């Protein structure tokens, strides 16, 4: 499963991993980056607009086109056998989106890793580089998995009434109060982030935060936000902590509202 890895682990791997920097290209070029990291900016793997009706039925939401994704990884020197570490400078939320996209498109989750911390925390104690590594392009072949955590809006609506499920809104308090899917509990994704280390809270603390929101491993967890970016981070956290039943509403509120479905306000 996709997991968190320490800066020490990343530094110890040498060139045995593919490190992916998802910050803007100007940050990669102008501010430096992790040694041997390749640049794959967030905007390059974000769909420009909401998907088609058929995409919505399949739970595709804002995922990029398959061919575009495969070309992007090929140009970054990634193969299906690559171990990938992704990072950003926003506590890992954009990097998590990259990794979840890779998982949904069939990359082995055991080979997907999120840097515990971000660029700012890395550069406090470790060297950075201004050199762009030479990359040998691959011919990345995408193989869709037999099953994914993706769910559509009907399944999300059903989860709100299911005693064995918890529907989770990972946005900010104010957004939640203005309108959320009926029956959803609030868990701001940043509640699982340690402001000092810029990485994941210690695991015991993270579990306590989750339990207070009623999010426990025994339940099926269904995640949504606005455009599936913030739930990507929460998804990686939950899987890292051993949660086995985590559903991912890719369409999120963008799709939910476009379909005229009801919202609840506080």
Automatic annotation (TrEMBL):
It comes from the Archaea. InterPro entries: Rhodanese-like_dom, Rhodanese-like_dom_sf, Thiosulfate_sulfurtransferase, Thiosulphate_STrfase_CS. The gene is sseA1. One of its GO terms (molecular function) is thiosulfate-cyanide sulfurtransferase activity. Gene3D superfamilies: Rhodanese-like domain (3.40.250.10). Its EC number is 2.8.1.1. The keyword Repeat applies. SMART domains: RHOD. Keywords: Repeat, Transferase. This is Thiosulfate sulfurtransferase. The lineage of its organism: Archaea, Methanobacteriati, Methanobacteriota, Stenosarchaea group, Halobacteria. Coiled coil: none annotated. Residues 13-131, 161-265 form the Rhodanese domain. Residues 127-146 are annotated as: Disordered. Pfam families: Rhodanese (PF00581). It comes from Haloarcula hispanica (strain ATCC 33960 / DSM 4426 / JCM 8911 / NBRC 102182 / NCIMB 2187 / VKM B-1755).
């Amino acid at each position: 499963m996709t997991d968190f890895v320490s800066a020490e682990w990343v530094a110890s791997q040498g060139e045995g991993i593919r490190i992916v920097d998802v910050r803007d290209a100007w940050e990669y070029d102008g501010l430096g980056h992790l040694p041997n990291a390749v640049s794959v900016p967030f905007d390059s793997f974000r769909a420009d607009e909401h998907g088609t009706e058929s995409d919505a039925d399949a739970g595709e939401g804002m995922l990029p086109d398959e061919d575009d994704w495969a070309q992007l990884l090929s140009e970054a020197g990634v193969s299906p056998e690559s171990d990938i570490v992704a990072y950003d400078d926003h506590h890992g939320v954009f990097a998590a989106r990259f990794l979840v996209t890779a998982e949904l498109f069939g990359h082995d989750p055991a080979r997907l890793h999120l840097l515990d911390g971000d660029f700012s925390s890395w550069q406090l104690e470790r060297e950075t580089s201004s050199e762009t590594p030479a990359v040998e392009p691959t011919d990345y072949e995408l193989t869709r998995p037999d099953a994914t955590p993706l769910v559509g809006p009907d399944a999300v609506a059903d989860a709100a009434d299911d005693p064995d499920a918890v529907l989770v809104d990972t946005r900010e308090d104010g957004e939640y109060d203005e309108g959320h899917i009926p029956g959803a509990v609030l868990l701001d994704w940043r509640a699982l982030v340690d402001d000092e280390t810029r990485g994941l809270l210690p695991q015991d603390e993270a579990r306590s935060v989750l339990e207070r929101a009623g999010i426990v491993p025994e339940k099926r967890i269904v995640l949504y936000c606005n455009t599936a970016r913030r739930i990507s981070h929460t998804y990686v956290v939950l899987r890292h902590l051993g949660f086995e039943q985590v559903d991912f509403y890719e369409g999120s509120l963008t799709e939910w509202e476009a379909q005229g479905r009801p919202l609840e306000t506080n």
